[in-house]
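Quick one:
INPUT:
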């Protein structure tokens, strides 16, 4: 064998690039990092072999005499593998970073390419007559040589490259290859003939290169671990920060190669394996082959020149066999551990997507799960390691080996169900290394031990469905991979494919489900036994860990340490016991385990460290779900009762532990502690989930009902135990009570309707809940009367208001039945709640100091707001009560008057006084200041809305109060009207101030109920003067546009515009009044005319109107007046579906909507079709939102008309047809692939936005009108576009109109719209098919006509030069078009559920296929049109 070392061609380039990128080898502050990064990416992914194959294939397909040889140049010369080996084999001095990159390169190539392409050995030697890439490519492609000559070539190939590769490490790799060549590549042996005669030349290359790769990777791994073992022994420190990632990377590469050797696409198709040797054995054998050679050599032979100290040399020489044993142990353990993760886990880090036949993955998964070829072989390998490394002279080596065994077992348990025998064997052979719990430090061995147990317990927590998925190779690990930070999210198609695979698995039949149930039971049983075997050791670790975390309450606990281990043990074992009962003949053992687990969980819940407590949330919920799924009667077994008490008590302990710290509210100007608020929210969610009564049909709610009873009982006990009656009760009690509000509402519903429920228990729960909340409200009112400090009243008030808000549906249900035994108690609770709300609003400002929501999630501590909210809790609570039902809105005033011992009118006036005081406080505050006293304007208006609705409900129920309450309401309503009217005459304010005053008054008016707002616009009504002033001010603003930055006046006018939108929206009560219709027409026309002027203006200047501070999506988007019509229609549809609306009212409402749209359609169409001389950015172009608003409104109009009918269908059809024509014109003005761009051409609105979402929905809805929509479209389009109708053969208007629409759809697919919009094409085609009368012939005729439709010669329209459908239909060959129509006819006539997606794929293929590298954005959300917080 030759010992001459030839430096790899790419070695210097690789070293230079690595040095510049990572600042190695004395290269610092390099300015070439970008170039180095690009080169290294190319180095990893280059595939010269594929280029050679492609070149040769091109020659074979061509009739010309093309050059078939791949010439050596900078791009094609040199092997990535050859360049990497000197670094990895210590042939040249190398840095840890360099070695890791080289290992990652090998792994990346093996995962993304076939082995024959990844091991690009032949690319290194163009100068060799026989061993270069061109010879090998021809050999594989032609197959002209005899089989024996081909096999002889492979012998030469192995000998040649074996010598070249061996030159990088003669003593180890060289001898390994010698043994391989002697035993495997003897062409005269029978075994060689049997191996090679049955496979093709290409498979032979895959096999030979795979075997070479296994030996090379095993040698590299062994040599690096051996070197690390020596250095660790000499330094006395075990630092695995460099060797661990290197070894894991190399091991992953070996696993991939072993998979490709074991299974090929051809072998799995024939239901067999390509190699008889299992994957585990392939990997283990490679290391054993290397170890046999290495163990006979000293470190001087393996690492020449590594050590120069003679004393050290002797020490190492004496320990040489120990080093070899440790190297083999570590290599085998890490390699075996990597197998399931590398093959079944998701991509991540340096590990890219595994490019292999999915059936091979499924086969590998089945193999690893098998006792004979997977887990059994792993156990044998572990036993071999224990036996061969048992003679290691020091304990550190033994501990290291045991830890590696734990890590290997843990990695396997992620993907493979471990049997009882394997778990007992591994635990018994490693448990003696676990700490006793007395040591302060938590060792690496302890971590590995706990991690192994965590994996066992997590496997036991899998559902039957998850087990079935895991058995089919669909693992949770792979599904999570698409959501790693920094990685591209899983596409909708990928999610759909994965869901389809999952559905196929779950519908696999009863036999597969029984097997999965058996496996799930096995996993649970193994987990319970593992818990019993290891409890003493793990519990000692737990107590030590809890004590340490108690002393450091702000530290973060390790989720896979003892605490996480016990938590996962609870969620694995308790559900198993609940479902299956005892796990052995002695039931006392099972009960004992359940008892100690529940006690341990409560210990964790009571820890002072927040992160420790947080680990329990998920596991408590899992145990609760197991109880819900399996406990079918109220008579719980002993184990079920223990589990139920554990869930309840643990949750209540958590509730008590998340209290606000002592002195938390001493300084109300400080920000809230986000960790505290997050924990409180999480605990509240947990409380809500464990007592939920919203259950599936297969579940029984009695467990949740018992937990709910205990939670409410805990709250009652908490207030009854209070010793200090002068102070407010603990806030933790009311915090806990607020959580089960939804469950209380469900229970109340069943109780009131005399449903199936334990009435005594239900009455007790409801009674205690009402008493508890009433008590808190009374104490709060008492606290306000005693002037308790705000640091006490504010947190209590906030929590009480939140609780009342969540109790509103519960209250509404309880008062439905007048004969309810708890009605009086309910009324009392409601009345106290109303008074407590009013007192909170009156006594506590919404903000003590300036809000900090801009930079923190939970605002300042002195904010009477819900966590993360923006409004006063009291105002929100009152609104929730009003919205919970007409009965509750009416009763609230009655109940409050009973508690305050006054009449209804007096109580209402007191509530009105609260509003007046809020408005006064707002006026008294300095301009722009929202804190100090009172509430924010939005909260005040929320209160006003609620107050108005309470007044209207009360007048309806008590007519005798109408005069007084009506007068009070009119007084409140008249004030903003007077402000608006008087503002025009005021001379003491600037124009900006006048706009501000008008805006605030307009917002105030919009807060009143729609019935009152609608009266403002009545003809000759009392609000005419005010509305005229508002509309006039709005219209004037559109005429004040300039090319300067917006002034303060313009900004305030933008707010006034939003307020006017809100007022018009509120006035839509079963349609619009005549004045509302006229106002909408005027405002929409003015806005659209301003848009047209804006587009025609010099685009070098800005606009003072269409600016991010005035008219924009951040303030109130263009088109908001149009969307007001949409909202009016939507409100009417909601009323019709909920309450029913008289036909006469509908017949008045719909014409008002249609009239509003007809009066402005021309200006809207003009704005949509306007163009500019430059491309407008999305934040400065008002056209898209106008288009979106118009389409959404038309869509809503179509929906309501087809639901309730329309008196004037002709007018509606005309309106929809004109909108459809405008939409088609927009598409014709959008350039598609390969259409010519002319310099200086006009720019039309972009289709990259939510208006395109509205557009595809509009296409579908417009087809509801049937063929008549085709004729209308044809009539309108042909009058504007010069079409060649003769050559198409279209002889009727319906066919022409349908063809025009289809041509527009073709343009969509050809690139006129973003790719995400193309996904809606199947539903568009389906609707179009229905429009054609579900006739395949008529449908295919329209598809053909749409493909043929052209402009007359010499004419141009928009971006269309010839064919309306776009460039691809200009150049389509007649045969391809004919095949397209035949296939389309066949698909449309079929009955398949997937036919419309198939048709989309067909259309997409004709239209140029997938549009990659487009400049479109991702799919957007619809524009938000809310404008009440400007």
């Amino acid at each position: 064998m030759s010992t001459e070392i030839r430096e790899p061609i790419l070695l210097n380039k690789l070293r230079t690039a690595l040095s510049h990128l990572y600042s190695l080898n004395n290269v610092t502050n390099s300015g070439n990092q970008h170039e180095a990064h690009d080169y290294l990416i190319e180095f990893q992914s280059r595939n010269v072999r594929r280029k050679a194959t492609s070149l040769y294939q091109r020659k074979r397909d061509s009739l010309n005499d093309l050059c078939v040889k791949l010439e050596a140049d900078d791009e094609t010369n040199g092997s990535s593998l050859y360049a990497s080996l000197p670094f990895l084999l210590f042939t040249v001095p190398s840095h840890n970073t360099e070695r890791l990159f080289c290992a990652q390169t090998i792994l990346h190539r093996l995962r993304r390419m076939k082995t024959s392409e990844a091991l690009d050995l032949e690319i290194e030697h163009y100068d060799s007559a026989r061993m270069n890439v061109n010879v090998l490519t021809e050999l594989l492609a032609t197959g002209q040589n005899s089989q024996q000559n081909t096999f002889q070539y492979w012998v030469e190939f192995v000998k040649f490259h074996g010598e070249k590769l061996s030159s990088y490490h003669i003593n180890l790799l060289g001898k390994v290859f010698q043994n391989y060549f002697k035993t495997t590549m003897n062409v005269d042996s029978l075994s060689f003939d049997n191996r090679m005669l049955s496979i093709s030349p290409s498979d032979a290359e895959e096999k030979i290169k795979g075997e070479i790769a296994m030996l090379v990777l095993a040698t590299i791994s062994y040599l690096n671990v051996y070197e690390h073992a020596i250095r660790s022994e000499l330094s006395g420190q075990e630092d695995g920060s460099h060797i661990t990632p290197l070894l894991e990377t190399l091991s992953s590469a070996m696993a991939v190669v072993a998979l490709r050797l074991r299974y090929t696409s051809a072998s799995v198709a024939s239901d067999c394996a390509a190699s008889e040797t299992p994957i585990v054995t392939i990997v283990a054998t490679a290391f054993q082959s290397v170890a046999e050679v290495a163990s006979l050599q000293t470190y001087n032979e393996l690492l020449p020149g590594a050590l120069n100290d003679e004393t050290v040399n002797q020490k190492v020489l004496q320990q040489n066999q120990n080093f070899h044993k440790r190297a083999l142990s570590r290599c085998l353990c890490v390699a075996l551990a990597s197998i399931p993760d590398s093959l079944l886990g998701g991509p991540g880090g340096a590990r890219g997507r595994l490019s292999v036949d999915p059936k091979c993955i499924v086969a590998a998964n089945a193999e690893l799960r098998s006792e004979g070829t997977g887990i059994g072989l792993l156990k044998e390998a572990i036993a071999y390691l224990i036996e061969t490394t048992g003679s290691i002279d020091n304990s550190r080596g033994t501990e290291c080996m045991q830890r590696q065994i734990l890590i290997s077992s843990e990695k396997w348990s992620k993907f493979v169900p471990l049997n009882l025998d394997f778990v007992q064997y591994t635990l018994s052979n490693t448990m003696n290394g676990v700490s006793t719990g007395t040591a302060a430090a938590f060792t690496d061995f302890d971590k590995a031990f706990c991690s192994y147990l965590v994996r066992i317990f997590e496997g036991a927590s899998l559902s039957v469905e998850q087990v079935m998925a895991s058995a089919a190779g669909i693992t949770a690990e792979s599904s999570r991979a698409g959501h790693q930070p920094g990685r591209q999210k899983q596409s909708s198609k990928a999610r759909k494919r994965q869901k389809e695979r999952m559905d196929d698995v779950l519908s696999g039949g009863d036999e597969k489900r029984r097997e999965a149930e058996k496996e799930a039971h096995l996993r649970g049983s193994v987990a319970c036994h593992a818990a019993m075997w290891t409890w003493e050791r793990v519990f000692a670790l737990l107590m030590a860990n809890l004590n340490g975390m108690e002393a450091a309450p702000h530290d973060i606990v390790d989720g896979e340490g003892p605490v996480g281990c016990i938590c996962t043990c609870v969620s694995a074992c308790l559900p198993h016991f609940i479902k299956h009962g005892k796990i052995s003949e002695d039931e006392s053992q099972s009960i004992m385990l359940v008892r100690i687990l529940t006690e341990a969980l409560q210990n964790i819940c009571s820890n002072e460290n927040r992160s420790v407590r947080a680990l329990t949330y998920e596991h408590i919920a899992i145990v609760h779900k197991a109880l819900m799924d399996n406990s079918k009667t109220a008579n719980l077994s002993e184990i079920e009762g223990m589990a139920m008490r554990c869930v309840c008590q643990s949750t209540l302990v958590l509730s008590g532990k998340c209290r606000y710290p002592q002195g938390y509210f001493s300084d109300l100007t400080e920000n809230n502690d986000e960790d505290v608020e997050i924990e409180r929210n999480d605990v509240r969610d947990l409380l809500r989930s464990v007592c939920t009564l919203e259950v599936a049909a297969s579940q029984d709610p009695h467990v949740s009902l018992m937990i709910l009873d205990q939670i409410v009982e805990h709250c009652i006990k908490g207030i009854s135990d209070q010793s200090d009656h002068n102070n407010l009760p603990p806030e933790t009690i009311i915090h806990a009570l607020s959580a089960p509000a939804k469950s209380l509402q469900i229970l109340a519903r069943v109780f009131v309707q005399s449903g199936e429920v334990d009435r005594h228990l239900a009455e007790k729960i409801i009674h205690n809940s009402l008493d508890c909340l009433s008590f808190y409200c009374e104490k709060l009112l008492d606290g306000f009367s005693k002037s308790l400090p705000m640091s006490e009243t504010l947190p209590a008030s906030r929590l009480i208001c939140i609780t009342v808000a969540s109790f509103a549906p519960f209250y509404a249900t309880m008062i439905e039945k007048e004969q309810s035994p708890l009605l009086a108690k309910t009324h009392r609770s409601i009345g106290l709640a109303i008074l407590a709300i009013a007192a909170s609003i009156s006594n506590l400002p919404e903000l003590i100091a300036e809000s900090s929501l801009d930079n923190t999630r939970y605002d300042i501590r002195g904010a009477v707001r819900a966590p993360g909210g923006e409004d006063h809790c009291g105002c929100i609570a009152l609104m929730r009560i009003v919205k919970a039902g007409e009965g509750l809105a009416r009763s609230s005033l009655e109940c409050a008057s009973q508690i305050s011992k006054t009449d209804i009118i007096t109580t209402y006036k007191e509530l009105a006084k609260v509003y007046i005081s809020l408005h006064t406080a707002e006026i008294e505050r300095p301009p722009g200041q929202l804190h100090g006293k009172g509430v924010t304007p939005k909260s005040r208006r929320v209160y006003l809305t609620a107050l108005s609705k309470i007044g209207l409900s009360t007048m309806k129920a008590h007519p005798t109060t109408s005069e007084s309450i009506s007068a009070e309401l009119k007084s409140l309503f008249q004030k903003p009207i007077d402000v608006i009217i008087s503002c025009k005459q005021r001379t003491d304010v600037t124009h900006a101030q006048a706009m501000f005053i008008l805006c605030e008054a307009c917002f105030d008016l919009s807060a009143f109920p729609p019935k009152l707002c609608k009266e403002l616009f009545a003809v000759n009504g009392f609000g005419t003067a005010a509305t005229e002033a508002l509309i006039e001010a709005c219209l004037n603003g559109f005429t004040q546009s300039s090319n300067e930055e917006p002034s303060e006046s313009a900004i305030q006018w933008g707010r006034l515009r939003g307020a006017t939108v809100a007022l018009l929206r509120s006035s839509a009560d079963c349609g619009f009044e005549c004045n509302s219709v006229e106002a909408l027409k005027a405002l929409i026309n003015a806005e659209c005319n301003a848009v047209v002027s804006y587009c025609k203006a010099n685009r070098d200047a800005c606009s003072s109107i269409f600016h991010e501070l005035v008219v924009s999506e951040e303030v109130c988007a263009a088109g908001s007046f149009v969307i007001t019509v949409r909202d009016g229609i939507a409100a009417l549809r909601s009323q019709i579906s909920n309450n029913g609306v008289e036909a006469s009212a509908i017949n008045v409402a719909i014409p008002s909507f249609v009239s509003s749209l007809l009066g402005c359609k021309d200006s809207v169409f003009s704005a949509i079709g306007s163009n500019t001389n430059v491309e407008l950015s999305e934040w400065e172009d008002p056209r898209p939102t106008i288009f979106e608003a118009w389409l959404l409104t038309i869509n809503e109009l179509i929906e309501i008309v087809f639901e309730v009918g329309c008196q004037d269908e002709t007018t509606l059809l005309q309106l929809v047809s004109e909108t459809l024509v405008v939409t088609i014109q927009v598409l014709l003005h959008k350039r598609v692939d390969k259409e010519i761009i002319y310099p200086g051409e006009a720019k039309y609105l972009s289709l990259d936005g939510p208006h395109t979402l509205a557009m595809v929905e509009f296409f579908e809805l417009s087809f509801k009108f049937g063929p008549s929509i085709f004729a209308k479209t044809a009539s309108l389009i042909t009058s504007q576009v010069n079409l060649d109708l003769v050559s198409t053969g279209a002889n009727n208007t319906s066919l022409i109109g349908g063809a025009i629409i289809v041509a527009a759809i073709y343009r969509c697919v050809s690139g006129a719209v973003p790719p995400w919009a193309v996904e809606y094409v199947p539903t568009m085609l389906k609707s179009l098919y229905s429009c054609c009368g579900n006739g395949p012939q008529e449908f295919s005729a329209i598809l053909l006509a749409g493909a043929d439709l052209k402009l007359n010669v010499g004419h141009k329209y928009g971006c269309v030069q010839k064919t309306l459908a776009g460039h691809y239909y200009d150049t389509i060959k007649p045969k391809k078009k004919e095949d397209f129509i035949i296939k389309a006819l066949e698909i449309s006539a079929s009955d398949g559920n997937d036919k419309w997606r198939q048709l989309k794929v067909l259309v997409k293929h004709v239209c140029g296929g997938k549009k990659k590298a487009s400049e479109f954005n991702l799919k957007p959300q619809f524009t938000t049109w809310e404008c009440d917080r400007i």
